[in-house]
Design goal:
CATH topology of the largest domain in chain A: Rossmann fold
CATH superfamily of the largest domain in chain A: Crotonobetainyl-coa:carnitine coa-transferase, domain 1
Largest sheet of chain A: 6 strands, parallel
Largest interface: A-B, 149 and 149 residues
Mean pLDDT of chain A: 94
Number of helices of chain A: 18
Low-confidence stretches of chain A: none
Number of domains of chain A: 2
Oligomer: homodimer
Shape of chain A: elongated
Structural class of chain A: alpha/beta
Chain lengths: ~400, ~400
């Protein structure tokens, strides 16, 4: 634990053995560390692959650093006897083990759930994988782009008739990390009642299906696969970005009263009485004509100009921010959603904060730094009363 | 509870008062119900707005039904004295209260956290809102499209120079639902140790920032906002969809060995020795030339043809499925990721399953149906020893 905020949170006292690499697993255990758990990252001797991914800050991977803040590191080769002895000494102290190997790997190492559950009945064993522990695809390799493509979200993203479009962030991994964190916490709740652990099995593909939202209902209700809708809401208008003189403004006027107020605010009240636009159904049928009318006006002034007017009138609206703009918003700062990394201030490494704000705990504006490979070996071995010489 | 699977799971015995509407909140409480909690949905007399959203199955909103499966419903007007008496009788039995009103609304009703924490110190009070309970934007209205635009994910999604592109599913709401569920479960873990509840405050905007992933590291490392990358990985090649004769195949050959194996499998082994493509850096620099070479070949045969070859060789790959194809995969069926709704089989209402698979609990292939408005009033009032006449 590398700073005073680690170990503070609702999961204080929970010990997590973290055998995960790259993204879905480390994202999950980052959430657990943010919530106060002690996360011991067990890396191969060559380190988590993502230590080699750019961009670089202070000679270290900013990618790795942002996903592994507040964790400890020990390098263990689980095929080596003396390292296995260390792992064996850690296991009885663990509340949770998280791994994101391909199914079967932990069993080959002698540490599959079927073995560990007999030895450590209180242990919660969480496995995050591409396709899950079961089914015909269980042993296949997966990456974010594979499950985004397979799970349907790419078929809903992009413009009709346009090229395939990926969601611009790795939602295939990240949603798996989120669902795994929910499963682990729920298993901890149950253990507090029963004293028993269990296995949590989360597949990236399954998570993509679970976030398809109303596309699933639309498919089963109509028998037709929904098409992508570009940047527009699939059923409500106006509910999309409109071009201004220097960018775009999103206007989300979801009912007739809001539409009327938006038209009045923009100085074209006659639009709300026009039969082409008087109801949501009419507006949606004439959505291109509506867009043309709005943009003819909106392109005459800046985004800031229109946002000030619309916000004043209480119309749901907002800019299309790039990442720099999003991270520098006053609201972002007020919510501690950009945090410093302890000890890295000089290098400018900053990362997204924890969006779970809890009344029982401070929401620090910094987080512990990510560990160097094997940085915590000595301290961990000492605490286990194991010899601290090089393994 | 409308079928035998409700109340089975790690959250068995947990009672949730659910004051949420439409999406972020109901998605969160759906997860809690899937995990075994008893979720009592407290609706206004006119019902959750989303009861009016299409598509329609058996005369009911498939949208509402898919988000509110396995919950109970009671209609309460919290400005009406006799309904407030019912709410007052429910509160002492609640472990968790979830609301997604605009900040301030619950306080006006006399049920803000600051009041409830004094009366019910074990209560976990979760609020999911657009911008959170604090900061200059706290009281602003928000919708999914507003926070997608403001939070930066739309700036990463789509093709360079192309029109703005929304993520094709409501990730603004859904990620808020996921983080709120993590916060609630973590607070339950802490309560099992301390006996005390707390407030969980989750903002949709914050959650958008928390899933920006390596875009945050890239921005702080370089000072430049990352651009959208279409359907391609921002740093690895080949890692994108390629056109075939009847669709696309995603190939994710993330290192030199996989690239060589892919080239050999596709019958163009010379590509792996070509200096233009021999290393990932070279491939990424020549990514358009690489794409042209791959597609010149791949467009000669079907997606199924190429997938069979690539899968056999162990190359990470997959199709670009539409929602129908994704929901009908063998793997989807094997994982129970499409579930029936009890009592609705005749109408064909089916919905996405729960991606959290737990060894301690069955993973049913059906879920309880969503309640009609106020359907559980009589039973709830009887259990509270309140008169059951019309309120």
């Amino acid at each position: 634990m590398t700073d005073s905020t680690s170990g503070q949170g609702p999961l204080t006292g929970i010990v997590v053995l973290d055998l995960t690499r790259v993204l879905a697993g480390p994202y999950c255990t980052m959430l657990l560390a943010d919530l106060g758990a002690r996360v011991i990252k067990i890396e191969p001797k060559t380190g988590d692959d993502s230590r080699q991914y750019g961009p670089w800050v202070n000679g270290r991977s900013a990618y790795f650093m942002s996903l592994n803040r507040g964790k400890e590191s020990i390098a263990l080769d689980l095929k080596n006897d003396s390292d296995r002895a260390v792992f064996e000494a850690l296991l009885p102290q663990a509340d949770v083990l998280v791994e994101n190997y391909r199914p079967g790997t932990m069993t080959k190492l002698g540490y599959g759930w079927e073995t560990l559950k007999e030895r450590f009945p209180r242990l919660i064993y969480a496995a995050s994988s591409g396709f899950g522990q079961t089914g015909p695809y269980a042993r296949r390799p997966a990456y974010d782009l594979v499950v985004q493509g397979m799970g349907g979200i790419m078929s809903l993203t992009g413009h009709p008739g346009g090229p395939p479009t990926r969601v611009g962030t790795s939602v295939g991994d990240i949603t798996a990390g989120l669902f795994t964190a929910i499963g682990i916490n729920a298993a901890l709740v149950e253990r507090s009642r029963t004293g028993k652990g269990q296995m949590v099995d989360v597949a990236m593909l399954d998570c993509q299906l679970a976030i398809l939202e109303n596309a699933v209902a639309r498919y089963f209700a109509t028998g037709k696969a929904p098409a992508p809708t570009g940047a527009r809401h699939p059923a409500i208008a106006p509910f999309e970005p409109f071009a201004t003189s220097d960018g775009h403004v999103v206007i989300a006027a979801g009912n007739d009263a809001l539409f009327r107020r938006a038209c009045e605010t923009l100085g074209m009240p006659e639009l709300a009485d026009d039969p082409m636009f008087a109801t949501n159904d009419a507006r949606f049928e004439n959505v291109l004509a509506l867009k043309a009318r709005f943009e003819a006006l909106l392109q005459g002034q800046t985004t800031d100009h229109w946002l000030a007017l619309l916000e004043e009138a209480g119309i749901p609206c907002g800019p299309l921010n790039d990442v720099a703009q999003a991270l520098n918003m006053e609201q972002t700062k007020a919510r501690n959603m950009v945090v410093d990394i302890a000890g890295e201030e000089a290098g400018g490494l900053r990362t997204a904060g924890n969006p779970i704000k809890l009344s029982g705990h401070a929401d620090p504006d910094f987080r512990g730094r990510a560990p160097d490979l094997d940085a915590d070996r000595e301290r961990i071995l000492q605490a286990l009363n194991l010899p601290t010489g090089q393994a």
